[in-house]
Amino acid sequence: LLQHKDNPVDWYEWGEAAFTEARGSDRPILLSVGYSACHWCHVMAHESFEDESTAVFMNEHFVNVKVDREERPDVDRIYMDAVTAMSGHGGWPMTVFLTPEGKPLYAGTYFPRQRMHGRPSFLDVMAAVSEAWATRRPEAEEQAERLTLAISQSIPVAPSAPGIEIVDAALDQLSASFDPGNGGFGGAPKFPQAPTLEFLLRMGAIAPSPAARGRALSMLAPTLDAMARGGIRDHLGGGFARYSVDAAWQVPHFEKMLYDNALLARTYLRGWQLTGDAASRHVATDTLDYLLCDMMDPAGGLHAAEDADSEGGEGEYYVWSWDELGSILGADRRLAAEIYGATPEGSFEGRNILHLDRPPDAEAKASIDGRLLEARGRRTRPGRDDKIVTAWNGLALRAFAEAGAVLAEERYLAAATAIARFLTGQLEEHGGLLRSWRRGRPGPAGFCEDHAATAVGLFTLYQATGEERWYHEATGVTELMIERFADPAGGFFATAAGGERLITRPKNIQDNPTPSDNALAAEALLMWGAYTGERQARDLLEGAVRAATLVIERHPAFAGHLLAVWATVLLGVKEVAAPGAPDLARVVWERFRPEVVLATEGTLPLLDGRTRGMGYVCRDMVCELPVTTPDALRAQLAGV
Prior knowledge:
By secondary structure, the protein is an alpha+beta fold. The protein has four domains: 2-152, Glutaredoxin, CATH 3.40.30.10; 166-307 and 385-571, Glycosyltransferase (Alpha/alpha barrel); 318-378, no CATH class; 574-637, no CATH class. The chain has 23 helices and 19 strands. It has a five-stranded mixed beta sheet with strand order 1-3-2-4-5, sandwiched between helices. Strand 18 and strand 19 form a beta hairpin. The longest helix has 21 residues, at 410-430. The termini are far apart.
C-alpha cells in the first residue's frame, strides 16, 4: 500500500469506508490486489496507476481499493476464486470490479496500458464495465450474483478420511507429472512446491514399504539437487527466488519470499539427514544465513520479501554481462565460465544468471564468489518489503529451531527464540495474533494460517530447547485457533468467527507455495494431541483431513502437506519423553524422524510420572519400558 501512496489514483483501503462511498455514489468498486515484490504489479502501477489520464478515469467511474494480498489473504483468496472462475487462470496483480456489496462483476489480472498480445487495454476494460453498470445493470448484477454463488460453494466434507493406501495412490499421481530430466513437477513455469516436497520427504523416511520410500526419494533427491544448482538459487548471497520461468530452474523470477526460503531451508536440512547429501546441508545453512543477515528485523521478526526489480530492471542485481565478469575477475573469468556456465551471449537478455552445471571446486568457487559479492555490493539492492507476516515467521521459527537442534547451532536457536518472543508478544499486547506488523504499526487481526504456523513453530522450539514456556505458548495458540477458526462440520475456516463479514467465509484446503491453513492446523493438532492425549485433537485433525479428502484423492499435489501429516498419523506417531536426559533427546535429532514428538522438561501430561534420566517411547500415551542409553532408545525407535 505504501508503494501506491503517491499515485494520482484516489485509493481506499479495504473496509467499510470504501463500500459506504460506493453505495453513496452509486459506483462500482475497482479492487486491485498485489504484493510488494510482484514484478507485474510494478509494471501495471507504472503504466496505469501513475498515469494521470488513467487515474482521472478511475476516480470518476469507480471507488478504487488497493489490497496487499499478504496482509489480507482472505480478500485475496475470495476474489482470486472469482478470477479463476471467470478466466480459467489466476495471478497478480489481480483486478476485480465489484458491486457496492462486494460481489464480483468482472475479474482479471494484469491489463496493459495499450492493447497487446490479445489482451484488452486497462482503459478498454474499465470503459466496458462502467458502460455495463450504467446501461445494463440488472444483467450485470445477475452475473455477479451467479459468480458469488459459484465461489461460495465449498468442497463437501467426506464422511471418512482416506486410509494408508492413499500414499501409493499419491505417489502414482506425482510420478505421472514428475520431470525426471530437471526435477520438479510439470513444465514451465516451475515452482519449488515445498508442500509436495514435504510429503516426499516424510514418505522417504517413514512410508510403509521400502518400495514407497524409494519412489519418494527418487523424486525428492533430483528435485533438491536441480534447484540447488539452478539459477533459481542465489549462489552468492543465499536464498531462493520465487519460481523459475523455464523448466530447468535456470531463469528465475527474481523476487525472494520469506515463506519459500523458510520452507526450503528446512526441506534441505531434513533432506540432508535423509539422503546424506552434504550439498543439501550447505544449501540449508546458506539459506538460513541469508535470512539472518538480510531479512531480520531489529524487533525480532523476519521481513516478508525482496523485490525482483532494482535499478529499473528485473534481476539487475543478480545478473552479469561477459564484460563485467572480465573487468571484475580478469583472467579468472574462465573459472566463472567453468563454474557458473557464463558465456559471452548470456542466458538472460544478454547477461548471465549464475548456475552450477556440476559440483564445483570449492576453493575456486570461493575465490570467484568473494570478488563477485564485493562487486554486487556496489549495486543498488532490490527493495525490501519490511513488514513482518506472522504465518511466514511461524514457518521460519520452525526452520531455525530444527536447524539449531539438528546442527547444535546456538545462533539458529537464538534466531528462533527471537522470532518466538516477537510473535508471542502480540498475544500479550493485542489479545491475539496479528496478521502483520511494520515499524511499530500493527496490521489486521491474524487468520487461521497465522495461528497454525505459529503453534507449530512454538511446539518445535519447545522440542529444540526444552523451555517449558514455549510449550505453554504453543498450547495457548492452538486452543485459540480451535476456538476462532474450527468448523464443527470439519476443517478450519481462514477467517475468525465473529470477524468481518465478507461475501463468503473461505476455507483453505489446497496448498499454495505455503501449506494450506488446514494442513498447518492439522500439524499443530498432531503435536498438541501427542503432548496432552486430548481426544479432541485427533477428532479435529481427522475433520481437517475429511474436509480435504476429495482434493487429496484427486489431486494429491494440491494437498501435499496435509497428506504428509495424515500419513504420519496413520503410520503411528511416537511420543518420546526424556526428562533430564539430553543425551537421549539428542537421539531424536540425529536422524529425520517425522513421526516423533519430543518432550524433555516441564509440567505437561506426557511427562507425568516419568523418571528423570530415562527415556520413554510411547504411542497414545502408552509407553514401552524405559531406557537409559542412546543405543537402547535408537532400538526402540526403530522397532527392534
